[in-house]
Amino acid sequence: TIKGFVFDLDGVITDSAEYHFLAWKALAKELDIMINREFNEQLKGVSRMDSLERILKYGAKDQLYNQQEKEALAAKKNEHYVSLIKDVTKKDLLPGVSEFLTELKAKDMKLALASASKNGPFLLEGLGIKELFDTIVDPAQLTHGKPDPEIFQKGASQLGLSVEECVGIEDAPAGIEAINAAGMFSVGIGSKDSLGAADYLISSTEELALDNILVAVAHTK
Ligand code: G6P
Ligand code: MG
After folding, report:
1. Looking at the CA of 13, which ligand is closest?
2. How far apart are the CA of 44 and the centre of ligand 1, in A?
3. Rounded CA gap, 148 and 182, in Å?
4. Mutate to test the pocket of ligand 1, among 43, 51, 80, 195 (most ligand atoms within 8 A of CB)
5. ipTM of the complex
6. What is the pTM of this model?
7. pLDDT tens string 59-99
8. Where does 13-96 have alpha helices with state H?
9. Does residue 25 have its Cβ closer than 6 Å to ligand 1?
10. Quick check: 130 and 112 in contact, CB under 8 A?
């Protein structure tokens, strides 16, 4: 039986995936690298430094900067990103998310956050939903990022649950891959093009409903 939900944050709970994209796009442009939304799909769920590496590689400029310069570039992107999310409030929750979280708590589901973002706790605070989460996986403590299953395995174990007792929710291809590799039931929010590997796919957060997910879990067994 399902007893817990392990959530991605950016693009699932709030539209911050868009802010990550805008901040990377601006930084890339300064480096004379043009990135578009299609390329950005590969950055979703990927850590700050790994995202920068992918952008530099894409622009064939990965040999141009040393480690210290790369850290300065990543810090610059983060400053821009933080300026974009600094005023988030409850109003920035994606449609249906507040209702879904309330429904989960009413059904005694345990909630974990499994975001690669070091800004996760700050965002949850601003969105006014930090108290709803029983635990937050610390991305700084991970050996491997998504698509490695580690962050979802940790989310389940920090809840005191097995992966089979949890559902993972993601908007990123790397995230769905991570949930599947963990042996957890995966819910994808997005398009079949990107998230075809999800066990259960919905196109928007408005469609999040506990009963539908539990039916899908039962059918997948
Ligand atoms: C999430 C987002 C990525 C972001 C990563 C690190 O996984 O989907 O776009 O790069 O977190 O976020 P941070 O806030 O620590 O730079
Ligand atoms: Mg995401």
Report:
1. 2
2. 7
3. 8
4. 51
5. 0.98
6. 0.95
7. 999 999 999 999 999 999 999 999 999 999 999 999 999 99
8. 16-30, 37-40, 48-58, 67-85
9. no
10. no
